Each structure stands twice: as C-alpha cells, then as structure tokens.
Amino acid sequence: MANPLNRAAGPLRSREGLITRPSSSSDEIQLRIDPMHGDLDEEIGGLYRKVRQLKGVAQEIESEAKFQNDFITQLQMTLTKAQAGVKNNMRRMNKSIIQNGSNHVFHVILFALLCFFIVYFWSKISR
C-alpha cells in the first residue's frame, strides 16, 4: 500500500503518517499528517510524561548542585580559619624561639653524631 506522497517525500519522511515536503524557502519544511495514522495523542502524552520526568530530574540536579556548592563554601571557610590558626601559632612559636633561644637544632645534631658513632663502632667490633 504505497502512498504517492511518500515517494515524493523520499528521505525526508520521518515517521508513519508524517510526510515532509520541501517548500520554496530553504528554511521551511511543510508537514502533512496522514489521517490514517492520526493516533498521535498517545505519542504526545508519552512525550508529555517524559518532559515532566526530565523536569523532575533537572530539579533534583539543581538541588544537589546547590547543596554541594553550600558544602564547598563551608569547607572553604573552615580551611581559611584553620590556615589563620596555623599562621598565628607559627608566629607565636617563632616569637617564643627568638625570645628564649633554642638549642633544639644543636641537640638534634649531637644525637645524629652519637648514632653515627655507635653504628660505626658496632660495625668495627662485629667484624
């Protein structure tokens, strides 16, 4: 059962019952709905349900994005406060070291030398 309009539409035919024909303007397409295949209400209803579902998904994505942005902002504020605290503590430690004088580096060097000599003498004795 070939429809003569179907052959005229050629590759522009998109669905059963829908026929497109090129018009005089290159930007326009004429659409003719074949009355035999006019059960498009179900298609429209299905598309409406899908659009509603997509709208729900988009709203969920939007709320999740807002939640994550708020969480990131809160983390940034916490990090800024922690950095300020560390900076203040470092300033106090440096001030304390300058005022009291620190022999920590000297003690670490002595400990390293002591460990080196112990390992050296132990290797000499064990031979």
Would you write up a description of this structure?
Residues 1-13 have low confidence and may be disordered. The chain contains three helices and two strands; from the N terminus they run αββαα. A hairpin with a 6-residue loop joins strand 1 and strand 2. It has two domains: 1-38, no CATH class; 39-126. The protein starts with a helix and ends with a helix. The radius of gyration is 40 Å and the shape is elongated. The chain is mainly alpha-helical. A two-stranded antiparallel sheet has the order 1-2. The protein has helices at 4-9, 40-100, 104-126, and strands at 18-22, 29-33.
Helix-residue proportion: over 70%
Q: Label the structural class.
A: mainly alpha
Mean pLDDT: 80
Number of strands: 2
* CA radius of gyration: 40 Å
Query: Strand arrangement, largest sheet?
Result: 1-2
Low-confidence stretches: 1-13
What is the H/E string?
HEEHH
Gross geometry = elongated
What is the count of distinct domains? 2
Oligomer: single chain
Bin the strand percentage: 5-15%
Helical stretch tally: 3
Major sheet: 2 strands, antiparallel
- Distance between the first and last residues' Cα: 105 Å
